[in-house]
Amino acid sequence: MKKLIGIAVSTALLTACASAPQHDARIDQARTEIQTLAADPLAQQAANEDIQAARTSLAAAEAAQQANEPLPLVDHYAYLAQRHAEAGQARVQAAHARADMARAQDERNRILLSARSREVSTAQMQAQAAKDQLAQAQQQLADLQAKQTDRGVVVTLGDVLFDTGQATLKPGADLSLDRLATFMKSHPQTKIVVEGHTDSVGSDAYNDALSQRRADAVANALLSRGVPGEDIRAFGRGKSYPVATNETQAGRQQNRRVEIIFSDDNGRFAQGDEPIRR
Length: 278
Known about the structure:
Elements: H1 2-19, H2 25-39, H3 43-46, H4 48-66, H5 71-143, E1 147-149, E2 152-158, H6 174-186, E3 192-197, H7 204-224, E4 232-236, H8 249-255, E5 257-262
Parallel strand pairs: 3-4
Antiparallel strand pairs: 1-2, 2-5, 3-5
Helix pairs in contact: 2-4, 2-5, 4-5, 6-7
């Protein structure tokens, strides 16, 4: 009796072993790859069809395993599941690469836009600075009572700069000379010609020498105020270029003068380096 019971138990165990599904590592590997793929944030967008196909193949492999189908058939379905998962992973990686490129392009555009904004801002500030500088220059020249002539911009300093027959500058000349020096130092590209003029009293030789000394006195005063020497030329014109009649005291007073002729911003004069021709 005991022998019969042992035989029955052994037979049952053998039958159970024969009917239990065989473990397949490929199914585990396919399942892991599918889970990894599905967890990626871009998977549903970039590889949804691959995920579905992989899951379908995995389900077929698991069903075949449960039904104790031949191992090669189980492996085949598991293999298909892996290939679909790998294809999906490739699509996801490509999607990440495109996203990275898009972000890089956005960053590049942001940098370019920022640089362009800085350029525009710098250009605007430079334009405003140039405008302010021009306005300042115009005001400085206006303070000197400058006039636009065919010889260029001219500032006339009357005979109050000197005593009669003298070439020594009077203290009253300081304000005009300070303004001239300030203008010249703030406009380093500008050059000037200093012209001395006299009335008709006295000989030509006397007036030529006096007008040259007066022109030199003004030029030296500007030099002492920091104006570069290469920016100044001084000429004595004597009594040759009156601006009023020499028959009256008022007219002679107008003719006793020093004129400052300004170049353009490039250092050029309207009538050459010695702009006296009228």
